[in-house]
Amino acid sequence: MEPAALERFPSPGRGSGLRTRRRLRPGELLYRAQPFAYIVSKEQLGGVCERCLRSRNEHLQRCSQCKVAKYCGKSCQKEAWLDHKQECRCLKSVEPNIPPDSVRLAGRIVFKLLRQSVCLSERLYSFSNLQSNIEQLSEEMKDGLRHLAQTLQLYLKTEIQDVSRLPPAIDFFQIFTKVMNPGCFLEPFWEFVGVQCWVRLFSVVDTVVTCNCFTISNGEMQDVGVGLYPSMSLLNHSCDPNCVIVFEGYQLLLRSVREIQIGEELTISYIESLVPTSERQKQLMRQYCFECDCPLCQDQEKDAEKLAGEEHAWKEVKDAVNEMRYPKSKEEWERILARCQNLLSSNMGRLPDTNIYQLKMLDCAMDACINLESWEEALYYGSRTLGPYRLYYPGFHPLRAVQLMRVGKLQYSQDMFPQALETLKQAYNIMKVTHGADHSLMQALMEIKEQCEAVMRTQ
Known about the structure:
By secondary structure, the chain is mostly helical. It folds into four domains: about 5-35 and about 230-300, SET domain (Beta-clip-like); about 35-200, Annexin V, domain 1, CATH 1.10.220.160; about 305-385, Serine Threonine Protein Phosphatase 5, Tetratricopeptide repeat; about 395-459, Serine Threonine Protein Phosphatase 5, Tetratricopeptide repeat (Alpha Horseshoe), CATH 1.25.40.10. It is built from 16 helices and twelve strands. It has helices spanning about 75-95, 100-115, 140-155, 170-180, 190-195, 195-200, 275-290, 295-300, 305, 310-325, 330-345, 355-370, 375-390, 400-415, 415-435, 440-459; strands at about 5-10, 15-20, 30-35, 35-40, 60, 70, 215, 225-230, 235, 245-250, 250-255, 265-270. The strands form five sheets. A three-stranded antiparallel β-sheet has the order 3-11-10, with no helix packed on it. The protein has a three-stranded antiparallel β-sheet with strand order 4-8-7, covered by helices on one side. Strands 1-2 form a two-stranded antiparallel sheet. A hairpin with a 7-residue loop joins strand 5 and strand 6. Helix 2 (about 100-115) crosses helix 3. The two termini are about 45 Å apart.
């Protein structure tokens, strides 16, 4: 859909919103956006290409100057140079330390503003239009943002010696209030800004909010980066939205997942809808300063099922899941799998798979088995997630589509061809709406589905 078919409008009680000028069917591509600025998250540095965000692992080529940025080839490195040129010198000046994600993204935004580059993702809403919640933040939160602004000034010192000479529109503090905050980038960086600064930031790290950034995910819905897409900041929240956002590399794709009438507001979910209503409300207030009154929040549907089982058991599982972060070696995956196996075994009969923390533990176990190439065990855990996924992600949801595809591939690897074909068909029926026929993940799904059909024809 052309941007002209979408329009900004005053959404009652929400400021501005985005709506359509014509009736929409499920699966329509409503908007394709390039980022104003984006970065690879610190946890993924070295694992994905800085330009296209696709994984190449050991085949990535490192920038010879800063030795931080990596690319899948000369073409991507050349295309990225305009965004990386000044950043490269800044990274080199602070080596061996790497600034937090928030500071690196803010740096790219500053350089973009200085270049006065035209960005297609500003067609409906520009960077200067972006709103912040600064008036609703406590002084402690504002103080945390000021520390980030000071960190940004230190990081950019090689390229910008005198910030007082910057145009008035480029205010480091205002950039952070519009775009990000400490709560979005949970990472220790005392090596870069000092222990005292980190202690002060940590006190507000879980309360200050991101206003307008999007977490960029890969085809399997795993976080790989953070980007700013100004026009898409017009989208308001619903826990039960009529649109979803998926990514193709760094491109953001907005697609409808329901029939939408002329003039109806387009909504997405800002947060994970899996958590209970009370937790969603707390998170929305903490991060975005509003309460959600969507039908899902009013009905509080499925909340009891989400926390079913013995409370002390799911709290133990919840703590364990929260401690598991970005393993990068076989040994770390083995430790995670052992922890998952132990908890899943000890909680048998005490927690149903519909308990959301039990479900997350099953996902962790499945991921660990896949990374350790234990395909049969991965299938066992993955199969147990399909019922809860169907319960909590009804209709067209990209997370359910990806999970079905993963399980279908595991069934195929175990020569379970009829079961695999049925699972892959279910994934296809959802993904054609959430991702579209041209998405690379959809094409990969079609390929494995056709292989499965070919094998079955020969049997």
